[in-house]
UniProtKB/TrEMBL annotation:
Known role: Removes the N-terminal methionine from nascent proteins. The N-terminal methionine is often cleaved when the second residue in the primary sequence is small and uncharged (Met-Ala-, Cys, Gly, Pro, Ser, Thr, or Val). Requires deformylation of the N(alpha)-formylated initiator methionine before it can be hydrolyzed.
CC cofactor: Co(2+); Zn(2+); Mn(2+); Fe(2+)
Binding site for a divalent metal cation 1: D100, D111, E239
Protein name as it appears in the record: Methionine aminopeptidase
Residues that, per the record, bind substrate: H83, H182
A GO MF term: initiator methionyl aminopeptidase activity
Family affiliation: Belongs to the peptidase M24A family. Methionine aminopeptidase type 1 subfamily.
Amino acid sequence: MIEILSASELTRARAAGTLVANILHTLKSRCTVGTNLLEIDAWAKAMILEAGAVSCYVDYAPSFGRGPFGHYICTGVNDAVLHGLPQDYALADGDLLTLDLAVSLKGIAADSAISFIVGDAKPAESVAMIEATERALRAGIAAARPGARIGDLSYAIGSVLGEAGYPVNTEFGGHGIGSTMHQEPHVPNMGRPGRGYKLRPGLLLALEPWVMADTAQLVTDPDGWTLRSVTGCRTAHSEHTIAITPDGAEILTLPTVAG
């Protein structure tokens, strides 16, 4: 299913995007050495419920997971890059943490992810990997406009990641979003320009470049959810929800809170 949102639905999408971004911003500010992943999940739950929103994850049970997910946020540490199931783990200095959050507010969903390093240690390789996903995300957004095709966005994202020297997995990538979290079209992180669905105003997309330092292969944890690099290398993930407008792309998941 591909949805094209009305003006009133886009207004609700903006509110959902701002909520997601503000929650992620607040969580990042709270994450220090010793913070437990289960604490992060509890904080996310409290903020979602206080806002009158609905988690897109708690009851999420796709065919590839061992569902329902049962938590309010995805937390990936170091080699865990996607669908990280929160567990009893205290963050250590230098850990690379990915937080991925999707909520629905008044019937419209928004989805975003950030990766950052906890504590004072800042391994150069991890910093470079995070920055590469952020650059790729900006490139994908810059390519998004009415008349462009999904392949144009995928090519822009994949070019940045490839030039940075990272293998690219195309099994999991970006996606359409709207009244539900995951919709068509699929937006792989590598592709050919001029191919795929033609973008129209009112379309919402969640673009999410993610990489692993030295592999494109994933392995699933025994928990049935957490996806890790098969080699144990570090990983990074950046994501925004955008709306296609007559003038280009509007980023919906930007924080408005200070700090």
